[in-house]
Amino acid sequence: MRTSQLKKYAKLLARMGLNVKKGQTVFIQAGLDQPAFVTMVAEECYKAGAKAVYVDWSHQPLGKINAVYRSLETLSDLSPWEKAKWEYKAKDFSCRLFIESEDPDGMAGVDQEKMSKARRAQYPQLKPYRDAIENRHQWCIAAVPGEAWAKKVFPELSPKKAVEKMWEVILYTSRADGKNPVKEWKEHNADLAARCAYLNSLGLKYLEYKSGNGTDFRVELNEDGIFCGGEEKTLKGRAFNPNIPSEEVFTSPKAGAAEGIVYATKPLSYQGQLIENFSVRFSGGKVTEVKAETGEDLLRQMVSMDEGAGMLGECALIPYDSPINNSGVLFYNTLFDENTSCHLALGHGFNECLRGYENYTNEECKAHGINDSMIHVDFMIGSADLSIVGITKNGDRIQIFKDGNWAF
Amino acid sequence: MRTSQLKKYAKLLARMGLNVKKGQTVFIQAGLDQPAFVTMVAEECYKAGAKAVYVDWSHQPLGKINAVYRSLETLSDLSPWEKAKWEYKAKDFSCRLFIESEDPDGMAGVDQEKMSKARRAQYPQLKPYRDAIENRHQWCIAAVPGEAWAKKVFPELSPKKAVEKMWEVILYTSRADGKNPVKEWKEHNADLAARCAYLNSLGLKYLEYKSGNGTDFRVELNEDGIFCGGEEKTLKGRAFNPNIPSEEVFTSPKAGAAEGIVYATKPLSYQGQLIENFSVRFSGGKVTEVKAETGEDLLRQMVSMDEGAGMLGECALIPYDSPINNSGVLFYNTLFDENTSCHLALGHGFNECLRGYENYTNEECKAHGINDSMIHVDFMIGSADLSIVGITKNGDRIQIFKDGNWAF
């Protein structure tokens, strides 16, 4: 990919993704796949006024070695220096940028029970920091090609060509392949905001999903719930774009109020392993049954991570006929696949999907129906014939999606 | 390079370099150049019994960006998480492995005065930890090819071929290109130990250096000084090899007792910038004059970092006709170039070069003549005609080196 275009993408992440404020600290989490690009992003953050940019590099094969050889006890411990870093972030409200590039099944074969236990043991150590920064700092998830990931998506190409093709599709889907990505994102955010405004004017109480694949499902929305999309704001009003790309309009439904069954329409890469051809059944708002052709045990572990892991945190609406989906590229990566398909998320919900959340504590948001969990995992349920009907507080039925696409 | 040979090299670093003990923690510092090899080393450390292996990845171009954009204040601060990591290392006496691969002049153009100030400001924050672990933990410096470094050494080759050639010369000079590198190192260590034993039997008080290039120099040795080489031991008796490769026999001379001038015979890469064709004059044990065709300001800053930076910490003896030197490869990297040439080091000395140092504190070692400084920088003075004469406590003159090689 041309350096000049990559610089535009780097600038997009610094200016629109994080919207770095003068004097802020930035933490970047990145694999080792595209160091030159990560360095560009760091420079763009400095140009935007960052005081310091720290990069935490990770390397999935090393993570796999660690998972194999370390004891559960050692894996469960949050190290003193990780703790010190979290303390710093929580005090400083530093920007956080996650640059994904990992192999969707690079952790295949790792003992998932051990890893789940380790994550469960780490979570209480992390939670106070996560709670402290929630809605208070700018963050963004974006992606760059890793070779193994590119080969998974484009198996017919040579590694070099697969990586180049991945750059193309990442920049295309991220609206970063044009002359002025920052300007394009401003327009895109305005579009999403208008769609949210319409949905929020309807006073919806339920969403009902139906598809010929077997999906037959109803979820209750929160009394003071709202739909969001695109740009978000920190509690102090600093705008940022948490996902690049992002095509979705989403809300956090009422935790513990969902009935029926949904069938996934794309594979899910969870913790570096693939779950494929699966369904999830809800009863009384909770997952009561999961089935999967591949990765059923992993899926079962996922929904049992904690109480909230078996309840919904998000309902997101994306037309089936999005240009990304029509390209036919399956990314095996949630950041992209979630933007091609209506999806649900198990686990943690979003406080900002409550009207007036600025005045609530995390506990109060939870009491208003926002789910709380250590996980937040999207899975895709969009299909060509998906119908979604909204039912208002007055009992009116309004077609939201028809044949997989917006009905309005 | 063949994976099977790289695995042998990885094992050498874990078993002979660090000699990891069951239950120990290992910290690896590495560039992004050879992640697959670093992962192999981590696995070998686990196989040797490590409880946890942590890799701190670094990326020189990012370091350069940081140096340019961060304020002196931000650069001077040891972050809370770095502090926490040092505290851990000092408590745990963790193994430390440094895997070098950087471009010898990758930091060219960076404001050296700013960087020197930052290092000086950081040092008092680091020193207590460095003092706490000194002689108490196993550590090792080794190298892998970085592309920019390989191109600097083999400018006539393509990047890919230069990297492959670098692997060859690194494994060759590191005695890691054979069937059983661990066995070869055991034999090598025995050889170096025999040479040290002979030198230590002579009761030397001075070393006098002379060469046709202008070097004319005398340094006083410590009353209870000894020569060391190859394998070292922690205070608790755990053997390790701090440098791979290592061909040198060395001692720490008496700080503040050197007279005359030495002419460098190889370029020096210091903090990512090159110093070339230089000389250093000592008077009353201290550097009183430096001259350099390239990098004179940087050299002057280096010897002024602190009081000890202008005094000697090491005298090392290596024959001019070593196979590495005869290969004609100039590495622009001290780890290699120091093993092809007699050299001196400005700055920090080695406590273990005092007989009975186990019974002394760091302060007592200093009082016995071991230099103390935040820097330790080797520079090469070996030449084809170098003569070194040892003068014993009784005034006898013994030829140690003649025409650049061992005289005995």
Could you give a short description of this structure?
The structure is a homodimer of 408-residue chains. Chain A is of the alpha+beta class and 408 residues long.
Can you characterise this structure?
The structure is a homodimer of 408-residue chains. The two termini of chain A are 38 Å apart. In chain A, strands 5, 6, 10, 11, 12, 13, 17, 18 and 19 form a 9-stranded antiparallel sheet that branches. The model of chain A has no long low-confidence stretch (mean pLDDT 95). Chain A has helices at 3-18, 35-47, 60-69, 72-76, 80-92, 112-133, 147-153, 159-173, 181-200, 296-303, 323-326, 334-337, 362-367, and strands at 25-31, 52-58, 95-100, 139-143, 204-210, 216-220, 232-233, 239-240, 249-251, 258-263, 268-270, 273-283, 286-294, 312-317, 343-347, 376-380, 387-392, 397-402, 405-406. The first copy, chain A, has 408 residues and is of the alpha+beta class. In chain A, helix 2 links the parallel strand 1 and strand 2. In chain A, 48% of the residues are buried.
What labels describe this entry?
408 residues, 13 helices, homodimer, M29_Exopeptidase (chains A, B), hydrolase (chains A, B), M29_N-terminal (chains A, B), alpha+beta, 4-stranded parallel beta sheet, 19 strands, globular
Termini gap of chain A = 38 Å
- The tally of helices of chain A reads 13
Number of strands of chain A: 19
Measured by residues with Cβ under 8 Å of the partner chain's Cβ, the largest interface is:
A-B, 34 and 34 residues
Major β-sheet annotation of chain A: 9 strands, antiparallel
Helical percent range of chain A?
A: 25-40%
Subunit organisation of the chains: homodimer
Give average pLDDT of chain A, whole number.
95
Per the principal axes of the C-alpha atoms, what is the gross shape of chain A?
globular
Proportion of residues in extended strands of chain A: 25-35%
Q: Which secondary-structure class do the elements of chain A indicate? A: alpha+beta
Radius of gyration of chain A: 20 Å
Poorly predicted regions of chain A? none
Cofactor (chains A, B): Mg(2+); Co(2+); Zn(2+)
Family (chains A, B): Belongs to the peptidase M29 family.
Protein name (chains A, B): Aminopeptidase
Organism (chains A, B): Candidatus Scatosoma pullistercoris
